[in-house]
Design a protein that fits this description.
The chain has helices at 20-34, 76-95, 98-114, 116-127, 131-155, 189-200, 214-226, 241-250, 263-275, 302-314, 334-346, 366-378, 391-396, 413-416, 432-440, 455-464; strands at 39-41, 44-45, 48-49, 55-60, 63-72, 159-160, 166-174, 178-181, 205-208, 234-236, 256-260, 283-287, 292-296, 324-330, 383-386, 403-406, 423-429, 444-445, 447-451, 469-472, 489-490, 493-494, 508-516. The protein has 526 residues and is an alpha/beta fold. A 7-stranded mixed beta sheet has the order 15-16-17-14-13-19-20, with helices on both faces. It has a 6-stranded mixed beta sheet with strand order 10-9-8-11-12-22, sandwiched between helices. It has a 3-stranded mixed beta sheet with strand order 1-5-4, with helices on one face. Helix 14 links the parallel strand 16 (403-406) and strand 17 (423-429). Helix 1 packs across helix 4 (116-127) and helix 10 packs across helix 11 (334-346).
């Protein structure tokens, strides 16, 4: 059976920064957003701004002397009020006509389009992401709004199967209040998709953004409110995950938890939800990372394989759940690929990510830098090559040197542990079948790729490579809504794939209604 894309949906076009006009607009975006610094980010419950006893600064990870925002953290009282208000508004939001909710998403997409320059600047400055990656992320956020709007149009058209004397309807109803716990690495796109999907399905949403990207999240929240989402259907609670997040995960009125983040936190949410004695089954939709591999076959185009591997491993400093962290090479290609890959690494330019020519920026914060530096020290004997970063740059921000390791032990931490940074390890395999076996021998099943010209090996990978997103003769990052719905299995996640035809159904209950139409009349209307 063929997989049909949504025929009415078109992906957002990316910007061309080789054009002077686009670069000029972008520069104006940086000037404009910096005039707002420090942005004041507050908890918002039912449209009311909440005061906070805890205010923490958000600093530019590439230049920690620049303050982006003051984040006013929400309290448990705010969380309780948001939940109570969401429960009270549920029936109203549930009964709102789907076409009205759909209209809000389309309006949000229009607003996002009109603010690309400002959003690009803020994402660059708050999380240290490169310009091209940000452009793809903003396009993805717009795509989520448009795609889920189109999918909702289809889902809320009840399926009918009528027989003589009998009417049968199959349709969907919203589950209930949804908690969204989002990551910092795709601070606009992932948060947007995780939020607008349950909203368009008729569920009130409580947004709990990542601490490191709360200013971007606040911009998105305000865009959704500006688009028409009722203030009682969407609440904003910046704060500590272990405090606000944990409280809401345990709350008996939260029906669905939509989570993207670490494996440890995601599995903890699943355990907590399963242990609660409620009058419904609390659902956890979780995307939890990967230890992603690229296999390079004996007949692979090495020029293409090297370029794709460099981009997949070091784009946004490897801080993507889809990022490449293992390269499994057939023995005959090992030395040639290794030398080319090392040369390609040295060609990358480190620096401030607001410069479109920069390819290596900072990691997100000092905690991440310390953790990654510790890993590099632990496996220093396995370092094959690293990209040197100037000492003044390191002192200026949270910069970590990208590293290529090599190892003969695929079950060591270099082959098993998700580092979430600019680290990649080379491994050898005797043949293609062994390469697939090595690739599969991890707890995760998120993304993976092969470079090969052998039709039999390509078919073998399609059948045997255990990943949710398999890429053949291209990079393994950069999934596009509708074309490559994103998400994995094993310990990479539960629930349907984001940007795909099943995603909205995670926030809905299917119901079937059968009516005997051979009745003997109606009672008179009064």
């Amino acid at each position: 059976m063929n997989f049909h894309l949504n025929s009415n949906f078109q992906n957002e076009t990316l910007r061309d920064f080789s054009r002077e006009e686009e670069r000029s607009i972008l520069n104006k975006g940086f000037v404009s957003i910096r005039k707002e610094f420090p942005i004041q980010v507050y908890p918002i419950v039912s449209g009311k701004t909440k005061k906070s006893n805890l205010v923490l600064p958000a600093l530019n990870p590439a230049n920690i002397s620049e303050k982006i925002a003051d984040i006013h953290y929400a309290s448990i009282t705010d969380a309780e009020e948001a939940t109570k208000d969401s429960v009270q508004f549920f029936e109203t939001w549930k009964s709102t006509k789907p076409e009205i909710r759909i209209g809000y998403l389309k309006k949000a997409a229009d607003i996002l389009r009109s603010r690309k320059a400002e959003l690009t600047a803020l994402i660059s400055l708050e999380v240290g992401k490169g310009i091209k990656d940000i452009d793809a992320e903003i396009a993805e956020a717009i795509d989520f709004c448009e795609f889920y709007a189109k999918e909702a149009e289809n889902i809320f058209q009840p399926r009918k199967r009528d027989l003589l004397g009998e009417e049968n309807i199959y349709t969907y109803i919203p589950r209930g209040v949804t908690l969204v716990v989002a990551p910092w690495n795709f601070p606009l796109a992932i948060l947007c998709g995780m939020t607008v999907a349950p909203l368009v399905a008729g569920n009130p949403v409580i947004m709990k953004p990542a601490e490191q990207s709360s200013a971007i999240a606040f911009k998105l929240f305000n865009i959704l409110i500006e688009a028409g989402i009722p203030s009682s259907a969407l609440h904003f609670l910046p704060g500590k995950g272990e405090e606000i997040g944990a409280y809401l995960v345990k709350h008996p009125e939260i029906h669905t938890i939509n989570f993207t983040g670490s494996r440890a936190v995601g599995l903890g949410m699943i355990r907590e939800a399963a242990s609660q004695d409620l009058k419904f089954v609390k659902k956890v939709v979780a995307e939890m990372g990967g230890k992603n591999a690229m296999i390079v076959d004996e007949d692979a185009d090495l020029d293409e394989a090297v370029i794709a591997s460099i981009q997949s491993a070091f784009g946004f400093q490897g801080q993507k759940c889809s990022a490449l962290s293992r390269i499994i090479l057939l023995e005959s290609k090992y030395d040639t690929f290794k030398n080319r890959f090392i040369d390609a690494l040295q060609s990358l330019k480190p620096g401030l990510p607001e410069d479109p020519s920069v390819k290596v920026g900072p990691v997100i914060d000092s905690e991440s830098k310390t953790r990654l530096d510790s890993i590099a020290s632990q496996f220093s004997s396995k370092i094959l090559s690293k990209l040197k970063i100037q000492e003044n740059q390191k002192h200026m921000g949270h910069f970590v040197e990208p590293i290529v390791f090599e190892s003969e032990d695929p079950i060591s931490p270099l082959g098993q542990t998700e580092f979430f940074g600019p680290y990649v390890t080379l491994f050898k395999a005797k043949n293609f079948q062994e390469a697939i076996k090595i690739a599969n021998n991890v707890d995760y099943a998120l993304t993976g790729g092969i470079f090969s010209r052998n039709p039999k090996n390509i078919q073998y990978a399609k059948e045997k490579f255990e990943v949710g997103n398999l890429y053949i003769n291209r990079g393994i990052t950069g999934a596009v809504v509708d074309r490559q719905p994103f998400g994995g299995y094993k310990l990479s996640g539960v629930g349907a794939k984001a940007g795909g035809p099943d995603y909205l159904k995670q926030f809905l209950e299917p119901i079937s209604i059968t009516e005997n139409t051979m009745r003997r009349g109606f009672i008179p209307e009064t």
